[in-house]
Design a protein that fits this description.
The protein is an alpha+beta fold. The protein has 2 domains: about 5-100, TATA-Binding Protein (2-Layer Sandwich); about 130-190, no CATH class. The protein has helices at about 15-30, 90-100, 130-140, 145-150, 150-165, 165-180, 185-190, and strands spanning about 5, 10-15, 35-40, 45-50, 55-65, 70-80. Strands 1-2-6-5-4-3 form a 6-stranded antiparallel β-sheet. Helix 3 runs antiparallel to helix 6 (about 165-180).
């Protein structure tokens, strides 16, 4: 089945509509999506993927319509169900699905993973969930900082909890929320695949 890309988010094909709809449906499933909307009559498909803590927050919606010359047009949009796409992840997912529909391999595909840089280390095995829990419950004492390896900041939090009670706790609470909001890849990149310095603050 052949598709012509007429814009960044639009594809066209002269294939049969029912066959096209079924082909795109199967493509979404092969890409790991879970179908949320499927309406052949209305020309609508929507699939969802896990993103961070949200199990089905990342969505790709495909709207089908028939043009005057009986060409089938597909409009592909990506985004989040309950929030704005501030990271661009929705748009990236939509581009990935467009390439999959066209049968084009992702450009970042390679025979080998990228080599570790000079500042990279083996996975330190720190959990974002554990870091978040420690920040929320014991963050005022710097427990989350000791856990991720910033023992210098951990001591600073501990001392400040006696000098200015409550300040470190509020900061740690914000950090805990931040940990939970990070997806696994971002957390690993910040805290598991690099050296953590004693007084290094990462956001």
């Amino acid at each position: 089945m052949e598709f012509e890309k007429v814009s960044d988010t639009t594809l066209q094909t002269t294939a049969n509509y029912s066959d096209t709809f079924q082909y795109v449906r199967e493509t979404l499933l092969k890409a790991g999506g879970k179908l949320k909307k499927e309406n052949l009559q209305d020309g609508l498909l929507e699939a969802a993927w896990r993103y961070g803590l949200n199990p089905f927050g990342l969505r790709v919606t495909i709207q089908f319509r028939t043009l005057d010359d009986n060409t089938i047009e597909l409009n592909v949009k990506g985004g989040f169900k309950d929030s704005f796409d501030t990271t661009g992840a929705g748009q990236k997912k939509a581009m990935e699905i467009i390439r999959a529909i066209q049968g084009i391999s992702a450009p970042e595909a390679a025979d080998q993973p990228p080599r570790m840089g000079s500042d990279s280390v083996m996975n330190r095995g720190k959990s974002k969930v554990m870091a978040g829990i420690l920040a929320v419950l014991l963050g005022g004492l710097g427990a989350h900082k000791f856990y991720i390896g910033s023992w210098g900041l951990g001591l600073a939090y501990l001392i400040s909890s006696f000098v200015i009670p409550g300040l470190a706790m509020v900061i740690a609470l914000v950090e805990g929320i931040r940990y939970f909001m990070l997806n696994e890849n971002d957390f690993n990149e910040k805290y598991n695949y690099c050296q953590i310095k004693p007084f290094e603050f990462k956001w």
